[in-house]
Design brief:
The structure holds 2 protein chains of 2 kinds. Chain A is mostly helical. Helices cover 35% and strands 7% of the residues of chain A. Among the domains of chain A are: 52-170, Cytochrome c-like domain (Cytochrome Bc1 Complex, Chain D, domain 2, Orthogonal Bundle), CATH 1.10.760; 262-312 and 322-340, Cytochrome c-like domain (Cytochrome Bc1 Complex, Chain D, domain 2). Chain A has 12 helices and 8 strands. In chain A, a hairpin with a 2-residue loop joins strand 7 (312-314) and strand 8 (317-321). The longest helix of chain B is centred in the first third of the chain and has 11 residues, at 29-39. Chain B folds into 3 domains: 9-71, no CATH class; 110-314, Oxidoreductase, molybdopterin-binding domain (Sulfite Oxidase, Chain A, domain 2, Alpha-Beta Complex), CATH 3.90.420; 323-444, Immunoglobulin-like, CATH 2.60.40.650. In chain B, the strands form 7 sheets. Chain B has a 5-stranded mixed beta sheet with strand order 6-5-14-9-10. In chain B, strands 7, 8, 11, 12 and 13 form a 5-stranded antiparallel beta sheet that branches. A 5-stranded antiparallel beta sheet of chain B has the order 21-20-24-25-26, with no helix packed on it. In chain B, 54% of the residues are buried. The chains are: A mainly alpha, B alpha+beta. At the A-B interface, helix 1, strand 1, helix 2, helix 6 and strand 4 of A face strand 6, helix 6, strand 14, strand 15 and strand 16 of B.
Chain lengths: 344, 447
C-alpha cells in the first residue's frame, strides 16, 4: 500500500536539492545596498523616511517640476488623468467618494480612488518627475505630497507634512474606506463571482445587436486593409471607403509600407517623442518650431546637440529638458540635423 | 462529409470590387473566366482554380506557373546576409500598433499584438504586446542585479551570472494585461481583434523558480505572507504577489522563446506570474522583498483596481479568468468567398487548462464544440478551430471557453449584471463578430 509519507519525503528531497543547487550562488546584501534600493513605503508606514515639507515649499516644486504634466492645480487631463477633483467634504468625513457611484463624474481622479496615503508618497519618491525619476529628496517628496493634498482640500495651506502628521492625513483621505478585497480574483483558490452555464441549444433570447462601431470611427484606427495579410482566406477591409463599397486587400503590392525618415525613427527610439512632436507643442517645442527659430543659424546644430546632451531650461519656457545621456553622440547629431532640415 | 476544397481567389490587383465579391459569392463561374482572361499575361495576377475546373477558352494556365519568376531565375542571397533574420517584407502589415487616442504619451502606453494574423499559440517575440509605464530601457546585463530580502534569514544579491547557474525550467504561458478588452465594457469602441484582445501574448519562458531563490535566502515561512517585486526602470514598477502563488509556479525568467527576453519585455530579467495579469510580471526585475502585508503600490491602489457598481474598487484583482476569441474571421476582415471557412481562435484561463471551447454562428442561440489543437497547457493559450461553410448570409460568430475548474466564459450581459460597466479591468466576456452578406466582419455587442 502506498504510504502518504512518500510524496512528502520526495517533496522535501526536491526542495533540499534546489536549495543545495543554489548553495554558494549569490552573496549577502550589504546594509548600504539595502538602504539604496529598499525604498518602498507600506500602508502601515513601514519604510517611511523621516523628513518634512510644507504646502508652500511644495507649490514651488510643483510649479517647476509637476505642473507641466499635471496642471497648475493637479486638474490637467492633457498628459495623464487628473490627480485632483471629484471629492467633497462629506466624502472626507465618510471615507467614501460618492461620485464613484453612478455615472455622475466622468473622470476618476487619483484622489477619488486612492485609499492609502503611503501609496502617494511611495510613488512620488520612486518615480516622479516622470522624465527625471528619483530626483526628489525625501523632504521634497513630503512637500510635493503636501501641496497635492492641499489642492484636494485634504490639508490646509499652512500644513507641514512629516513622518508623524502623515498618519492623521490617512484618516482624512476621501476614499480611505473605498477598497475591497472580498473577491475571488486574488487568492490562488479564489472563487469566481460570475457563474455562466454552457447551454448548447435554444439558448437565451433571440440575439439583438445593441452596439456597433459608429460609421465615423470606421477608419479611426487606420486603413484595416493595411493591417491584415494580403493573402489567405480573408483580407482587411478597406476602411478608407464606406462599408458598402468595401474592397478587399491592400491597395498595392505588399511591401508598400512607407518607411519613416531615419531621423524620426531615431527620435522615437531615443525617447524624444515622449516630450516633443513634429508638428504640435507638447512638453517641449515641436520640431517644426525648432527649425523655424534656428533657420539660418550656422551654430544651431552644435548648440542644440549640446542642449540635448547636457539638458536645457529657459529657451522655450520654464519646463526643463533633462540631459539625454542615453542617446549616443552620433545619434544626437543625426536627430538634430534631421530637425534642422525640417523633420521630414 | 465531402466538402469543396478551400478556394482562394486573387484578382490581378489583389482586391475585388463589391460587385465582384457579390458575383463570386453567388457562385457565378462566369466571373472566374473573365478574371482569368483579364489576368492572362499579367505576371502579378493569379487565380487558383480547382482541379478539372479550367474554364473553356482560357489560356493554357496560371501565369504564376507558366511564367518564370525572379526567384527561380537568379542567384539567391547568401547565408548570414542577415545575422539576425527578419520576416518577409510581404508580412509588413502585421505590426504591433497603438490604439489612437487611448493614451496621450507613447512612453506610458500600450501596443497591441496583431492576433488577426498569428498562428498556433506562440507569439513571435517581436510582435509581443507592450505596456510600459515610463518607457522601456536597454539594461546592461553586466550591471543588473537581483536583490532578495525582507523576511528571510539572509538578504542576498544575485548577478545574471549567478542566476543562470541555477536549475532552470522552461514553461509556456500566456500573459494578458488586466485591461485587455477594457475599452469594450460599455460599448463597442475599437474595430479589430488586435485592439479588442491584443494585450495578449504567449511565450516559452525560461528561468529559475522564485521558490528556489526564496529557499536559498531562508524564507521565513511563518511570517512571510507576501512578496513585493520591483523593476529597475524609471517607474520602479512594484507589485505585491501573495506567498502561496509566489511559491507555486512563479519564475524569475531571462529566456523567451529560446533567446533572451526582448528589451521591451524586460531584458535581462522579469517575473513570470502564470495566470495573473501582466502588470504583476514585473519587467527589468531587480528586487524581491518578503513581507507580512501587501504594499498597496500605485498600480494596486490607483490603477489596476476594478470599480464595482456599489462605488467600491476591488483591490489586488489578479487572476485572468477563462476567455476566448475568434481571430479568423474577426472584426475588420472580409471573407473573400462563400463556402469553406476555417474559423479559428484562442482560448486561455488563468486558473488552469482549457477543457472545451464552443463556437456559435447564431449569436449564442446554439453552440458547437470546437477542436482543440495540442498542446493544451495550463495557463497557456490554446488554439481552437471549427470548419464552417459560409453561405453568404449574415452570421453572428462567438466563442466560449470552459476551463478545467468548470468555469464558463460569461456573456457581456451576465458580466455586466455583476460588475457593471466601469471596471476597466478583467473583461473576459464572450466576443461577438458580425459577418455581413458582403463578407465584411465587424465588432458588435449583443443586448
Amino acid at each position: 500500500m502506498c504510504s502518504w509519507r512518500e510524496p512528502l519525503v520526495l517533496a522535501a528531497l526536491l526542495a533540499a536539492g534546489a536549495a543545495q543547487a543554489a548553495e554558494g550562488v549569490g552573496r549577502p546584501a550589504t546594509p548600504a545596498e539595502l538602504r539604496a534600493w529598499d525604498i518602498d513605503v507600506r500602508p502601515d508606514f513601514q519604510g517611511l523616511p523621516r523628513g518634512s515639507g510644507s504646502v508652500l515649499r511644495g507649490q514651488e516644486l510643483w510649479d517647476a517640476k509637476c505642473a507641466s504634466c499635471h496642471g497648475t492645480f493637479g486638474e490637467s487631463n492633457e498628459v495623464f488623468t487628473p490627480l485632483v477633483g471629484g471629492t467633497t467634504a462629506e466624502d472626507q468625513a465618510r471615507g467614501r467618494v460618492a461620485a464613484l457611484t453612478g455615472n455622475g463624474h466622468p473622470q476618476r481622479t487619483t484622489l477619488m480612488k486612492v485609499a492609502t496615503v503611503s501609496t502617494l508618497f511611495d510613488y512620488i519618491r520612486r518615480a516622479m518627475p516622470w522624465d527625471a525619476p528619483r530626483s526628489l529628496s525625501d523632504d521634497d517628496t513630503y512637500a510635493v505630497l503636501a501641496y497635492l493634498l492641499n489642492l484636494g482640500d485634504v490639508v490646509p495651506s499652512d500644513f507641514v507634512l512629516d513622518q508623524d502628521s502623515i498618519r492623521a492625513v490617512q484618516q482624512r483621505l476621501p476614499n480611505r474606506n473605498g477598497m475591497t478585497r472580498a473577491h475571488g480574483l486574488w487568492d490562488v483558490k479564489g472563487k469566481p463571482d460570475v457563474r455562466a452555464v454552457a447551454c448548447m441549444k435554444d439558448c437565451g433570447p433571440e440575439p439583438r445587436v445593441a452596439s456597433t462601431l459608429p460609421d465615423f470611427a470606421r477608419n479611426a484606427h487606420g486603413n484595416l486593409a493595411e493591417q491584415n495579410r494580403t493573402f489567405g482566406p480573408v483580407r482587411g477591409a478597406d476602411t478608407t471607403r464606406p462599408a458598402g463599397a468595401a474592397r478587399t486587400g491592400a491597395p498595392a503590392a505588399a511591401p508598400a509600407a512607407v518607411k519613416p525618415a531615419a531621423g524620426l525613427t531615431l527620435a522615437r527610439a531615443s525617447g524624444c517623442l515622449a516630450c516633443h512632436d513634429v508638428e504640435a507643442k507638447r512638453l517641449g517645442p515641436s520640431f517644426r518650431d525648432l527649425k523655424a527659430r534656428y533657420a539660418g543659424d550656422a551654430a544651431a546644430a552644435a548648440k542644440l546637440a549640446a542642449r540635448v546632451r547636457g539638458g536645457s531650461q529657459g529657451a522655450w519656457g520654464p519646463v526643463p529638458m533633462p540631459p539625454q545621456r542615453q542617446v549616443a553622440e552620433g545619434d544626437v547629431d543625426t536627430i538634430v540635423k534631421w530637425v534642422l532640415e525640417g523633420a521630414r | 462529409m465531402p466538402s469543396k476544397s478551400a478556394r482562394i481567389l486573387r484578382a490581378p490587383e489583389n482586391f475585388l470590387t463589391q460587385e465582384q465579391i457579390t458575383e463570386v459569392s453567388a457562385g457565378r463561374r462566369s466571373f472566374l473566366r473573365r478574371a482569368f482572361l483579364a489576368a492572362g499575361g499579367i505576371a502579378a495576377g493569379a487565380v487558383a482554380v480547382r482541379a478539372g475546373a479550367a474554364p473553356v477558352g482560357a489560356p493554357a494556365g496560371d501565369p504564376a506557373i507558366l511564367e518564370r519568376q525572379p526567384w527561380n531565375t537568379s542567384l539567391g542571397k547568401p547565408v548570414a546576409a542577415r545575422g539576425y533574420g527578419l520576416p518577409s517584407p510581404y508580412e509588413a502589415n502585421l505590426q504591433r500598433r497603438e490604439s489612437p487616442g487611448l493614451t496621450r504619451v507613447n512612453a506610458a502606453s500600450v501596443s497591441f499584438a496583431p492576433l488577426q494574423g498569428l498562428f498556433g499559440i506562440i507569439t513571435p517575440s517581436g510582435l509581443h504586446f507592450e505596456r510600459h509605464h515610463q518607457g522601456w530601457q536597454d539594461v546592461d546585463p553586466a550591471k543588473h542585479r537581483l536583490m532578495v530580502h525582507g523576511l528571510v534569514r539572509q538578504a542576498k544579491v544575485y548577478t545574471m551570472d549567478d542566476l543562470m547557474r541555477l536549475p532552470s525550467v522552461s514553461r509556456i504561458h500566456f500573459i494578458e494585461c488586466g485591461a485587455n478588452t477594457g475599452m469594450e465594457w460599455g460599448n463597442v469602441a475599437v474595430p479589430t481583434v488586435q485592439y479588442t484582445h491584443g494585450m495578449l501574448s504567449c511565450s516559452e519562458f525560461t528561468g529559475v523558480r522564485l521558490s528556489t531563490l526564496l529557499d536559498d535566502c531562508g524564507l521565513d515561512r511563518a511570517k512571510g505572507r507576501y512578496v513585493l517585486a520591483e523593476g529597475a526602470d524609471g517607474s520602479g514598477m512594484t507589485r505585491t504577489v501573495a506567498i502561496d502563488r509566489a511559491l507555486d509556479d512563479v519564475l524569475v525568467a531571462w529566456g523567451q522563446n529560446g533567446e533572451m527576453l526582448r528589451p521591451e519585455n524586460g531584458y535581462p530579467l522579469r517575473l513570470v506570474v502564470p495566470g495573473v495579469q501582466g502588470v504583476s510580471w514585473v519587467k527589468w526585475l531587480r528586487r524581491i522583498e518578503v513581507g507580512d502585508q501587501p504594499w498597496a503600490t500605485k498600480d494596486e491602489a490607483i490603477h489596476y483596481v476594478d470599480l464595482m457598481p456599489d462605488g467600491r474598487h476591488r483591490q489586488y484583482t489578479s487572476i485572468q479568468e477563462a476567455k476566448s476569441v475568434i481571430t479568423t474571421p474577426s472584426g475588420g476582415q472580409v471573407l473573400v468567398e462563400q463556402g469553406a471557412c476555417e474559423v479559428t481562435g484562442l482560448a486561455w484561463s488563468g486558473r488552469g487548462k482549457i477543457k472545451r471551447v464552443d463556437v456559435s454562428f447564431d449569436g449564442g442561440r446554439s453552440w458547437t464544440p470546437a477542436r482543440l489543437e495540442t498542446p493544451v497547457l495550463s495557463k497557456a493559450l490554446t488554439r481552437f478551430s471549427v470548419s464552417w461553410r459560409w453561405d453568404g448570409r449574415a452570421a453572428l460568430l462567438q466563442s466560449r471557453a470552459v476551463d478545467d475548474t468548470g468555469y464558463v466564459q460569461p456573456t457581456t450581459r451576465l458580466l455586466r449584471e455583476v460588475r457593471g460597466t466601469r471596471s476597466i479591468y478583467h473583461n473576459n466576456a464572450i466576443q461577438t463578430w458580425r459577418v455581413d452578406p458582403n463578407g465584411e466582419v465587424s465588432n458588435v455587442q449583443l443586448a
